[in-house]
């Protein structure tokens, strides 16, 4: 699997993401994270911030949020969204394995399963330790995981969006690998831009996700130094997950 093509969210991918998940669209996560952050003290870090779907509402709610993303194209969209609303946030290009801040945060948040972009269990544990070390004592990590059934679900049909210029963007996905041993799936994603009925640009990416069981993540959080792990289903804080839940959220604390 080419690392240069994997989960890179380049130009067309970033545009499609922003059209499909615009700022203002919530899956229940924006409201949930807003409520949970009200009990946290200090600035907030959002890794894999993307185009700002969650960051912008948090800024508008008065939180001090810093974000990073591996995709410069996504960050360009995020900066533009902040500037259009008169908001300010520190945004930088970084990855899960190399981000570094002098600030110690009151919370680190990863909504919408972005943690599952990390390809291996070892890299995931290293990222959890890095999150832990960037929290102030008593600070909280809050992250979402998609359930195994969602990760393993077969790709759907080709999808399409029309942007503000009237251009058509399409996305076709083909599953090329399901590794039950390493708990990963990999898909080919083909993004096409159509202008005046003609194909003008195509981009190919590899999209990889790793699934985690509830107990595996609970153990990983403990190994990374976290305590007081709370597992919730369906954005109902403290309610144990059910089989039909679309999302499982973990909240854990760095010890005082």
What does this structure look like?
The chain starts with 10 loop residues before the first helix and ends with a strand. The chain has 256 residues and is α/β, with parallel strands linked by helices. The protein has helices at residues 11-20, 29-37, 55-60, 72-84, 121-133, 148-152, 214-223; strands at 44-47, 65-69, 90-93, 105-110, 135-145, 159-162, 168-179, 184-195, 198-210, 227-233, 248-253. The relative contact order is 0.16. The protein folds into 2 domains: 11-148 and 213-254, Rossmann fold; 150-209. Residues 44-139 form the Methyltransferase domain.
Biggest β-sheet, characterized? 7 strands, mixed
Share of helical residues:
25-40%
Q: Find the CATH superfamily of the largest domain.
A: Vaccinia Virus protein VP39
Q: Report the average pLDDT across residues.
A: 96
Major sheet: arrangement of strands: 3-2-1-4-5-11-10
CATH topology of the largest domain: Rossmann fold
